[in-house]
Amino acid sequence: MAGIKFPNSRMSSIQMTGGIREILGRADELEKHGRSIIHMEIGRPDFDSPECAKNAAIAALNHGDVHYTDMAGKYELREALAEKYKNENSMDIDPERNLVITAGAIEALTASFLTILEPGDEVIVPTPYFPAYADQIAIANGVIKEVHTTMENGFRLKVDDLKCAITPKSKILLLNTPNNPSGAVLTKKDLEEIADLAINNNLWIIADECYEKFLYEGEHISIASLPGMSSRTITISAASKTWSMTGWRIGWTICPEEMKPYVNKCHQNLTTCATSFAQAGVIEALRHADNDVKNMVTEYKRRRDMVMKWLENIKAFEYVIPSGAFYAFPRISSLGMDGFKFCSWLLEEAGVSTVPGEVFGCPGHIRLAYCRSYEYIEDGMKRIKEAVEKL
User: Whole-model pTM?
Assistant: First the structure.
């Protein structure tokens, strides 16, 4: 329309091309033309959703559970989540005062940014990070402030680096542990130091804990469980990764009582409520799908160990062993090309679709997702090794 210029000021910093979906699109195009492509770009669990969850959703549909729920979500689901966080995460959660069920973790994050940020407020985000964070912060009129972590430190955030990033405009520190894409897991000591810094500098914490069950070494600590942190922490998670329910679109926000009505109002105007019968399935997964989760994580650890063995034999790559999530994030800078160029070359040369580290704010790396069968991923690693050796 005349007089309207795109992008607007909020979205001017958002990259519209070169992301994960564009890489997937090119890989799909090659497949349509008969190429054999190994997909290691998308972080989507390849397991089916738990049978008990599917049966519960079917039963809910058959019983007419097809209408709006409470905007904050079914009370039964919030109650089950409160019990889970009390027993597993040492968090004291009130189902009515602290929880909002959302359409996945993406909506939970977006509603949280919209609730907290004033225009120009800074969100401190350790790199590497999930690229949607930058888009969401921009849409909420915030400013992303990157703090770089290093492979030499296992991609764990150093508090001294964090101190240097704090300015009078700093409002939120965004933590993601286990981390996508590095697989790094913050220790209890790390989190205690970060908590002290947050309290002393009046920072909010948004804790993205979507990968908490995908843990191979160490332990998962929710920063909200530490002294003085429940009143300044928003904990975000979802059913998507834990129970391989990405398409169900059920997530949640755990926040302080005074914030909950405003998060809920944002959520109301984004999606009204999360899908009724999908919520019924998540209730059942929380109660009866522990074995499904354990079996999935055991298999992912087996795949991780296999990927590490291949990386050990690719001399041009440097890497650290990820402690969580389901990604490897090797450094490829010795090859003399950036991540975009290398991933494009690898796709055309070897038929392996990967993601450049630049997408995650970390040039010189690539992300390898081991979310397909063991044999499929091993074929991909074999192709990568043979292609790199040609260079």
Answer: 0.95
